[in-house]
UniProtKB/TrEMBL annotation:
Record-given protein name: 4-hydroxy-tetrahydrodipicolinate synthase
Sequence similarity: Belongs to the DapA family.
PANTHER family associated with the record: 4-HYDROXY-2-OXOGLUTARATE ALDOLASE, MITOCHONDRIAL, DIHYDRODIPICOLINATE SYNTHASE
Keywords on record: Amino-acid biosynthesis, Cytoplasm, Diaminopimelate biosynthesis, Lyase, Lysine biosynthesis, Schiff base
The reaction(s) this protein catalyses: L-aspartate 4-semialdehyde + pyruvate = (2S,4S)-4-hydroxy-2,3,4,5-tetrahydrodipicolinate + H2O + H(+)
Subunit structure comment from the entry: Homotetramer; dimer of dimers.
Pathway field: Amino-acid biosynthesis; L-lysine biosynthesis via DAP pathway; (S)-tetrahydrodipicolinate from L-aspartate: step 3/4
Residues annotated as catalytic: Y133, K161
UniProt-annotated site: Part of a proton relay during catalysis, residues: T44, Y107
Subcellular localization, as worded in the UniProt entry: Cytoplasm
Protein purpose: Catalyzes the condensation of (S)-aspartate-beta-semialdehyde [(S)-ASA] and pyruvate to 4-hydroxy-tetrahydrodipicolinate (HTPA).
Amino acid sequence: MIKGSLVALVTPMTVQGEVDWPALDRLVDFHLENGTDGIVAAGTTGEPSTLSFEEHFEVIRRVVARVEGKIPVVAGTGSNSTKEAIALTRYANKVGVDYCLISTPYYNKPTQEGLYLHYKAIAEASDLPIILYNVPGRTAVDMHNETVLRLAELDKIVALKDATGDLERGKVLIDAVADTDFQILSGDDATACELILMGGSGNISVTANVAPKQMHEMCAAALEGDTSKAHQINTRLMPLNTGLFVESNPIPAKWALYDMGLIDLGIRLPLTPLSTKYHTTIHEALQLAGVIQK
């Protein structure tokens, strides 16, 4: 069972756009020191669409090596090519990750049957448990609840990261799997607190990149049913939960980490550094969350 605050880790880069491997090690240490419950390596926040296969593999391998089994590592192994997703997943199987996170195929816009067969093929090729990832705002395809429940019947498929932000829809799924081991995780920071209080198992979080301690504490309180404490922490985090999406993720998160002195400004085209007009918004959100003092 995977629970709590899992960071959707950025991939730090130099200003020239090369992966900054020492900075990646430092980020992993930062999360180990601040209570993060799990790390997602090379998930969509980690810019895998512009990483080479070799870089994608190395990000996963390096995070596993740095974590040393202290917390679960989830590898992002999704692709809009089923064959490529299987290759990425098989690699992750070899290097010691605990789960694979697989987004719905982007651009192709498969049918629900196509989605089912895509995930079924990957599950049959994997020795590891698989977390489904539904993020229609980024992929232009929406995996319906009926398809999720159908996939939940497969042994290797153990959870869903739901980034729809639709709490009513999430509650339907939570109720439907209540008597099973299948878990519902939030993938939407702004609604994660409420989803967990409804019975969700945790949050795969962008905000946790910059506020790992606070996000861990919010998720822990919600999982314990401490509504007052969870809401209190969530209120302080909300400017980050929304501010980190003023431009396409991970643009604001990378700038926030730069503002905190943890990484360089590097990001790969076609993404560009955060627009100057949003710098104050993000800086003030970091202050409100108690991440930085001034």
